[in-house]
Design goal:
The protein has a domain at about 10-150: 3-Layer(aba) Sandwich (Rossmann fold), CATH 3.40.50.720. It is about 40% helix and about 20% strand. It is built from ten helices and 14 strands. The strands form four sheets. A six-stranded parallel beta sheet has the order 3-2-1-4-5-6, with helices on both faces. It has a three-stranded antiparallel beta sheet with strand order 7-10-11. Helix 3 packs parallel to helix 4 and helix 5 (about 155-165) runs antiparallel to helix 7. The longest helix has 21 residues, at about 295-315.
Length: about 325
């Protein structure tokens, strides 16, 4: 992976898109000291420059970082290109409704990044993220481990928050994952949700107030969380911006952290050739390992249905940009 200085530990991030999600991601990286160099690229150059200036005002209180507005040629020696650009989800829209607008935007971005000579890792958050991550992989020609989507990281955070409230524990004490599409067909893998070494089923056995109906309500709230937030304030960005920063931290610091991301699976869960949300190990290579959770029959059916939904959308929408799935 190319570096931007002679120091092998110098970490350079190029952010494409400085709307609500992109600027929040950049702010989270600034606060957490992730990366030593960040280039902000946006079709609205003034906004990129304004965000860079605003972020540098925080450096006195955080950690040294070179933050500036740039263009696609700056990706040539970047470690990670983070793509958050694209049409935003409007009230009443699903993430899938964005497909016609964002396929062409993502194609244009990836083409220009690749023209720079970029040879690092792509990280995407633009929606529908599973489909756009697959598109980026195809357009880039990169190995699958170096093209990653934010996947169900945000959904999983929402799940752990809700389960923690039910169990009256900290969200950090809850382990479990949302799987599948980052969208309406995503689902909680309840058979593997646990806290304090006890599965959710064991918590239910010990406490009659924890019912299946409450678990169903939690899953519904998680899946529909974005709709509620968009209705109330217009957009969601704090959760996903922070999640993206953690992804970059895991990659740049070679952590080997397990995170639920959109990654390419080809046989896991009985599904082939798709990007979809599942836990994976992130390190300096990108995706070191895809983790296939042993699902029960109901969960396996949900995973297959989520994959089929994404595959059908790619089959019908990719021809509009000259690609075939």
């Amino acid at each position: 992976m190319s570096q931007s200085t002679n120091s092998k530990n110098h970490h350079k991030i190029v952010l494409v898109g400085t709307g609500a999600v992109g600027s929040t991601f950049a702010y989270a990286c600034t606060l957490l000291g992730i990366g030593q160099e960040m280039v902000i690229v946006d079709v609205a150059r003034d906004r990129a420059e304004g965000n860079a200036l605003d972020l540098t005002d925080a450096l006195k209180f955080t950690a040294p970082k070179n933050i500036y507005a740039g263009d696609y040629k700056d990706a040539a020696n970047a470690d990670i290109v983070v793509i958050t650009a694209g049409a935003a989800q409007k009230p009443g829209e699903s993430r899938i409704d964005l497909i016609s607008r964002n396929l062409q935007i993502t194609k244009s971005i990836v083409t220009q990044v690749m023209d720079s000579g970029f040879n690092g890792i792509f990280l995407l958050a633009s929606n529908p993220v599973d489909i756009l991550t697959y598109l980026t992989w195809k357009l880039s020609g990169f190995p699958v481990e170096r093209v990653i989507g934010s996947g169900t990281s945000l959904d999983t955070s929402r799940l752990c928050k809700q389960v923690a409230a039910l169990l009256k524990v900290s969200p950090q004490s809850v382990n479990g994952y949302m799987l599948g599409e980052h969208g309406d067909s995503g689902f909680a893998a309840w058979s593997h949700v646990c806290a304090g070494g006890k599965t959710i089923a064991e918590w239910m056995q010990a406490d009659s107030s924890i019912t299946q109906a409450k678990l169903d309500d939690i899953q519904s709230e998680v899946v529909n969380a974005a709709y509620a937030i968009i209705r109330l304030k217009g957009a969601t960005y704090y959760g996903i911006g922070t999640a993206l920063a953690q992804h970059c931290k895991a990659i740049l610091n070679d952590e080997g952290t397990v995170l639920p991301v959109s990654t390419h699976i080809n046989g896991q869960y009985g599904i082939k050739d798709i990007y979809i949300g599942t836990p994976a190990v992130l390190d300096r290579r990108g995706i070191r390992q895809v983790i296939e959770i042993p699902l029960n029959a109901k969960e396996q059916t949900l995973m297959a249905a989520s994959a089929e939904k994404l595959q059908e959308i790619m089959r019908t929408s990719f021809p509009s940009i000259g690609l075939k799935y």
